[in-house]
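# nightly structure sweep
# worker-07 picked up a monomer target from the shared queue
# config: single-sequence mode, recycle default, output format = structure tokens
# input follows
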Amino acid sequence: MRKHITIESAKLCCGCGACVNACALGAITMKEDEAGFIYPFVDTAICVECGKCVDVCTFTKKGDGANGEIAVYAAASKNEEVLKSSSSGGIFTELAKEILKNGGAVFGAAWTDDFTLEHICVENEQDLTKLRGSKYVQSNTGTSFSLAKKLLDEERQVCFCGTPCQVSALKAFLKKDYKNLFTVDLVCHGVPNIKMLKDDLKNVLNDKYSKIENISFRDKSYGWGVKGSIKLDNSKVKYNAGNSPYYFYFLKGEVYRESCYNCRYPLENRQGDITLGDYWGISLDLIEKMGDVNADLGVSCVLVNTEKGEKWLDSVKDNISLAKSSRQAVQKRNHQLTAPSAPLPEHKTLLNGYIENGYSSFKAGYKKHIKDHIIRTIKNMIPAKVKRKINDLLS
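# output follows
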């Protein structure tokens, strides 16, 4: 039996950080490999070989989850400001507000001052803005699991939002079910790393990199979709697949960590009490059933996985527009609910090129995709309402 965590293959570690939190001696830290992905590093001078870090490593083990969805919905917040500032339907914000109203705490991914991404804890509604919105890069969970346990043991309600592997890791670390823990897992495609993102931002912004105030991968001033922006001190720069090799390769699924292509969570039961994602390809009929909602501002797919999740969603029903759907309808445009992302032929070439030559390899490969860029530009010119009509006709 292994006495401490070891990484025998990159595809066997998702970088969740459970082992870091499990080590009471601080013998484990997360460090970047040559491509920038984070992996646990064990200081053997400190390690006492207690095996706790091995016990909480759940990524490659058959895990427990919900026993199928209780219900599936299309949903959107009735609060237009929340809706506009969220990536899809703003449901996370409404759920999180309910926890805060009860004196609880909410954990999620937020940008740091130097624009790395870390899981933080917020305890007031104003700070929820830090957690809102999709962030197409892996977050470092740091010591968030340990803090969550402390708050849970103090009998405070805790909401934890993250990727399925992060939610699973939290549960493994806690070692027991807390009635005051409420979890949200996301429909996750996979994650690149912060080193790649920073290299890309420097390429897109050049000498303006130091002036970044905020990054939005899903800026709804351009409509509900996959178009972002970078806010500078006195201006805003578009940030999308049309000017960013990183964004382009993220959408193609080419630059994720190796474990993302080996992810077991799409094939098993969900890890969160509630699963949230974009309701891509939503039908006109379902939009009508939601009532007075502007679908152009975004709609969430909501998978209710546990009785706790069902009660949680019910507690915010007055704040959201809701219509019943099905897993089959949702997964038509959310394939990561049925299988992990598959590495395309360019993946290895890109990764090896990045290790050997840095970001210039991304730029060189990106320029070769002229056809893809033209097709994406044309698609982006089609209004969302027209796309929905086309989807309805084709379905």
